[in-house]
Amino acid sequence: MADALVSVVLKQLSLIIAQKVQKEVGLVAGVKNEVRKLESNFQAIQAVLADAEQRQLKEGSIKHWIGQLKDVSYDMDDVLDEWSTAIEKSQKKVNDEHPRKTIKKVCSFRIFSCFCFREVGLRFHVARKIQTLNDRIDGIVREKNTFHFKLSEGGPDLPQRKITAPFIDAAELKGREKDKGTIVKMLVSESSDQKPALRTVSLVGMGGIGKTTLAQLVYNDQEVETYFGLRIWVCVSVPFDETRIAKAILEGLNESAHDLIELQDLLERIQESISGKRFLLVLDDVWNEDSTMWEQLKNSLKRGCLPGSRFLVTTRNKKVASIMGSSSTDILELGLLSPDECWSLFSQRAFFGKDSRERENLEETAQQHGE
């Protein structure tokens, strides 16, 4: 029963995400990201439901967990139905108001700002519901992790998490030199104004703007490498799984985690490994908005490390940066590259291997289009 409900919700979410108009809804309180987060969490849950439904026959706590999952699934289905209906009504309203001859122009210019949920009350009503449901499903995912369910064999795949690593060829990159210098200074400078010894520095910006690349440049900077005795890179993504992250930290410390299952045991091993050392922990692609999920890890990492240890977080959401512990002065919001930096990057890629005549032709064409 629970599996059928989750499948229905996933189908609804996939249909919503497939519609171009969801981009406009995403302008409201980050709904686009909330929907993708919901989809990822439901996929992670679906992957263990076979084991959960079998174990609920003997374990009351799991039976209660499945009951909570059913409740939130029913509510999610209702909200998505409401959303889909509103999208259809809004599109019909736009089509009725604008002649077909101008509809393409309208879609490309005006719909981005007002196509979907033009009635402000309905727009924020749905946005609040989606965010509230995300908070509930976050709690269900956290509890799921405590049961150590088995993944279904041949079942649905886990959500495709973005996997990143710290390796990069700095010589191939252009731009961000100033931002890199700023972050390096924030990481290696000693606190002089009563800030906590273990600070969190955050890179914030929209997807694809270069947060991960900048973090990689900083991670491999010579000054950073010299300053920190230990450097660890963890790709977090969604869902925020404390046990998986703790294991990744241990692996980054060249410690084995195969014999450890419980989170407490993992955290104790981490404390032993960082005792008396200054470390930099990069947490890439963080989406978690629940501070309680981060507190256990953070508190464990605080104990025993040398002053000057740092967290470097990359995220699309400034709220997440604050939840992870960054003060306003420890947040760098990335903007777009300057025109000169864009041109330098474009030239490096487009002109590689071209002779002088080809380069001149391409350069002239590119500059004309750029104007």
Quick summary:
With 371 residues, this protein is an alpha/beta fold. It contains 17 helices and 5 strands.
**N- to C-terminal distance:** 58 Å
CATH classification class of the largest domain? Alpha Beta
CATH topology category name of the largest domain: Rossmann fold
The stretches of 5 or more residues where confidence is low (pLDDT under 50) are 20-27, 100-118, 155-159
Q: For the largest beta sheet, what order do the strands appear in spatially?
A: 2-3-4-1-5
CATH architecture annotation of the largest domain: 3-Layer(aba) Sandwich
User: Average pLDDT value?
Assistant: 76
Largest sheet: 5 strands, parallel
Class derived from helix and strand content: alpha/beta
Overall outline? globular
Q: Count the E strands.
A: 5
Tally of separate helices: 17
What Rg do the Cα atoms give?
Answer: 24 Å
Helicity range of the residues?
A: 55-70%
> What's the structural domain tally?
3
Order of helices and strands: HHHHHHHHHEHHEHHEHEHEHH
CATH superfamily of the largest domain: P-loop containing nucleotide triphosphate hydrolases
Strand content: 5-15%
GO molecular function, one term: ADP binding
Protein name: AAA+ ATPase domain-containing protein
Domain NB-ARC: 177-353
Organism: Salix brachista
